[in-house]
Each structure stands twice: as structure tokens, then as C-alpha cells.
Amino acid sequence: MTAAATSPTGMAPAPGGRRRLLLGVGDDIDRHARTHGPRRLHGPAVIDEIARSGLTGRGGAAFPVATKLATARDAMTRGRRSVVVANAAEGEPLSRKDAVLVHEAPHLVLDGLAAVASAVGATETYLYVPAGAATRLRAVIATRAARGWDHAVPTVVEAPDRFVAGETTAVVDRIAGGAGLPHDRRVPTAADGLRGRPTVVHNVETLAHVALVDRHGADWFRERGTRSEPGSMLVTVSDDGGIRGVAECDLGAPLASLVDPDARAVLVGGFHGTWVDGREVGSLALSARSLRAVGAAPGAGIVRSLGAGSCGLRATADIADHLAAESAGQCGPCVFGLPALASAIRDLVTHGGADRAEKVARLAATVDGRGACAHPDGTARLVRSALTVFADDIHHHAAGRCAARTSGGHR
């Protein structure tokens, strides 16, 4: 792997230039001010500059940030004061980027939160974080409040330890006093969210980028990345041995710079992501445009290498078991569909065969697009990619062997 680990939380940047986000500033507010300088934009000017930058959300969906802000500001002008939320829930087991970011650059995240609040006219803001980070971040916010840094002082809300807790409607539900479960919505949260008010929920990495665009401008932001996908992003890199660290790299960087050279497959996008054949990695880049050719996307920035000695079907079964157990339990596709799908994949691992693979594909189609949230959809996407990338393994398992085992690994 090109990007070698430098600490338990960070990695050297992949090709593309020096870091922008992970500068190791930490909680020190004076060091933060010296490193990054003052904010310069306020009100609608923030939205205009973000629109010129081309920044998209780094939480997984890659939705244009300026579009979401404009929706909330328009709703605010009709008499409903906006709310802004910084989302660091990170329930994805293969992701550590948000945890690393709020550890190394909390003030950058909070500056982005303040900039967005100014852009949409919000006087109520929240920082939604895992319970283990709450006490420290409350202290960081108190320091800022004592300096008068934030017009709308954020309230820290603890996220439940659940895979779906970071989904936008689950975030709103938790802040409203609920259990933090997702809900079916037909109106964007940016137009109608917390207590019926326009609510902007952004991943903390997205907000950190907002803070940098605020300071340095759209042209500076576009100096990195590609013309159609500008900027850098954080990527959590892992392999069979677990998470190796977090890399900051340009969009458009070679995917191979983040992958073990002997990987037989790569999971891009995490548990709701897509398996990619290791033989295709050399022709791909970390960008939506490039990864679209293999049905994948950068998502929330997760790249997991599967070694030559590991079984892809078994790895997929392990993930499917986890996803079935982590559902919100609110609708049929999650309550009944995901456990059935996980069981069918286990059967496929044990016995192989085209007929069992077809059953898995049918169950994936049954849950896809039918849930109250996107949890079944992401699970179905992962499973379908496994059936394609590990098609040879399906036949090997039917014969009582495994490609991983025959290559010197274990079944």
C-alpha cells in the first residue's frame, strides 16, 4: 500500500499533495487560529462560494452542498428558522475518518458548522457524536463560547451505537428525543426536519471542507481533485488485519495507492458498498466517475482490501449477518428480509451452487427499494456485487473447496 501508517489514527497522504484537514491541531484554539486564520464569509455569500467550489457531501451520498443549503435558506425565508447539525455518528464498522477528524480538527468542524448556520440563518445548532467523544467536545465548545466564536453555540447530542444511527432522519429523531431510528420521508429534511423546521444535516468532514472554502475560496479548493469532482477526501483504509488508518487524498487519486497490491478484491464504500475485482483496481481512481464503471462509488470513503487467502463469500456473509442484526426493526424488508438474505448467503458459503446463488439474488431484489430507509438497499447492493466478483467461488464451494484455500489461504 502506498500510504503507510504513521500513527494509530492517521496515515500519510496518498498522492496529490499535502494534507488540508488532518494537520494535527487538536483542541488548542489558539493553534487552530494561527494555523487556519479567521473565517471571512457570512450569510448567502457562504452558499455562493460553496456553489462555485463544487463541494459535495462526504457522508456517502455526495449531494451538492450548496443545493442543500439553498433549500434550507429558502424554507427559512418563509418564516421557519433553520437548524444545522454536524453528524459524526459513524456507525459504519469500517470507518474511522470522522473520529479521527473530530480528534485532530474539532475547531475546523465547528467553524464549518458556524459558517453553514450563518448561510441558512440558523440560531440552533447541534453536534451529534458517539458517547465517548461527548465530554471532550463539550469542553471544546465551552472554550469557543468563552471566546465568543459561535453566534449559535452547538448543543452536543450523543448518538446511539447503531449502524443506522447516522442516517439523516435517525439523527433528527434522536435530537428530538427519540431513539435515533430512521423514518420514511417524502420531503427533504432541509425543507422540513426537526420540529417541522428546515434542518441541514451534514457529515463532519463536509463541514470541515466548508470551513476551508470559507477561508481560502472556491478556486483554492478546486486546485485539488478533478474538474468534475474537486477537492480532497478522507479515506479509512483496512485489510484482513483490520483498520490500518485514515488517509487524506485527492479525489481522482489512483485507487491502487490505497489497496494492498495482492488484494483479490476490494470493498469500496463500506458495508453498504460494492466489491470490486482486484484485477480491475489498477485502472480505477477514487472518484464517482471512475468507479461508476464497476458499479461502485467513493461513498463515505472506505476501502477494504481482501487478501488472496480470504474467502469473499464468507466475508460477505459476515457483513450480511451484521447488517441484519443492525436494522431498525421497523419494516418488513429489515425485520424479515435481511435475516432471510443473511441466512441464504450462509447456505451459499456452505454448499455453493448456482441455485443457491439465484436464491440470494432473488432475496436481494425482494428487499431492495422497499424499506423505510436505505438500509436494505445498501445491503442488496453489497450482496449483488459479491455474486458477480466471487462468481468462481460459488462453483468452487459447490465442489467442496474455495479459491482462497487453494491459493494458500483458509476457507
From TrEMBL:
UniProt KW keywords: 4Fe-4S, Flavoprotein, FMN, Iron, Iron-sulfur, Metal-binding
Origin organism lineage: Bacteria, Bacillati, Actinomycetota, Actinomycetes, Mycobacteriales
Family: Belongs to the complex I 51 kDa subunit family.
Residue ranges of every copy of the NADH-ubiquinone oxidoreductase 51kDa subunit iron-sulphur binding domain listed in the record: 313-358
Protein name (Swiss-Prot/TrEMBL): NADH:ubiquinone oxidoreductase, NADH-binding subunit (Chain F)
Names of the cofactor(s): [4Fe-4S] cluster; FMN
Organism: Williamsia serinedens
